[in-house]
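Here is the promised in-class demo. Please do not try to memorize the tokens; focus on the logic of going from shape to residues.
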């Protein structure tokens, strides 16, 4: 049975832990608001870009691009986007559960985030490249990852590229999603922003005529890689918003659990202290009766 001194030490230790988790919760909450705003603000641009490309592609006949070419999938690359640090609940473990469902022999992995790289290496899967990104992802960081994936696809080293990332739904919900990245499917508004519903382009009255300078192939050929780069940037923003949201919730739960544990320990301490006082009083009373 623990002594009152042991319980006091444990209460002090739990209080110190609660102070740390509370501070981490406040920091994560501040970062969460910024990350959520960045993720949500990028979605209208992705929606509009896909709408423009969908309408522009309607006016082209026989347009073809290496990034659009489909072929039998014998080898697949998967870009896994995770956090760099832990203490964010089940965010990474849910993501890695989806990784274990993929064929280990025919899949190569590209990671963005330290946790994903550590998991792929620990499970002895084929790690083709490892990238890192900051708390506020830059477009240049996303472009490097996207260009590497495009290079693998164009050189024929892989036949398809998918992206696995935690999609930000709301503060309490982050959903691991596996999305196709390459080859680019039929250009349509249905491929628009990550959480945005597709809009019916046919509802506009009459066909729209686009004039290209210099030609359709040059314009759409330049837009396709840029679209992929922006999608990658949006995926990084979604992951960062999910990470900060999950960390804030996890630290709040840890703080609440610590407070409850302090209450339970305090109650146990008071009971033990009362029992000791009662025992001492009985010993004093017994001694007086024996003397008297």
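The designed amino acids, position by position:
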């Amino acid at each position: 049975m623990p002594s009152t001194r042991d319980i006091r030490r444990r209460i002090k230790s739990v209080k110190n832990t609660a102070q740390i988790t509370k501070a981490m919760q406040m920091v994560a909450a501040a970062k969460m608001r910024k990350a959520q705003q960045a993720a949500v603000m990028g979605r209208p641009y992705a929606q509009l870009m896909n709408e423009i490309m969908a309408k522009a592609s309607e006016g082209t006949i026989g347009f073809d691009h290496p990034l659009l070419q489909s072929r039998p999938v014998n080898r697949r690359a998967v870009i896994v986007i995770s956090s760099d640090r832990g203490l964010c609940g089940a965010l990474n473990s849910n993501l890695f559960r989806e990784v274990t469902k993929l064929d280990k022999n025919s899949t190569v992995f590209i990671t963005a985030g330290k946790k994903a790289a550590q998991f792929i290496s620990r499970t002895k899967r084929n790690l083709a490249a490892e990238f890192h990104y900051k708390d506020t992802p830059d477009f240049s960081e996303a472009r490097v990852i996207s260009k590497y994936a495009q290079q693998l696809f164009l050189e024929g080293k892989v036949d398809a590229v998918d992206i696995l990332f935690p999609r930000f739904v709301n503060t309490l919900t982050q959903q691991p999603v596996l999305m196709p990245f390459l080859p680019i499917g039929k250009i349509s508004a249905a491929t628009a922003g990550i959480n945005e519903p597709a809009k019916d382009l046919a509802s506009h009255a009459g066909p729209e005529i686009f004039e290209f300078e210099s030609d359709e192939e040059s314009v759409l050929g330049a837009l396709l890689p840029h679209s992929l780069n922006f999608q990658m940037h949006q995926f990084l923003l979604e992951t960062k918003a999910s990470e900060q949201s999950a960390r804030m919730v996890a630290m709040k739960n840890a703080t609440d659990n610590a407070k409850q544990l302090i209450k339970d320990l305090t109650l146990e301490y008071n009971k033990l202290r009362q029992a000791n006082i009662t025992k001492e009083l009985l010993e004093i009373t017994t001694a007086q009766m024996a003397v008297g």
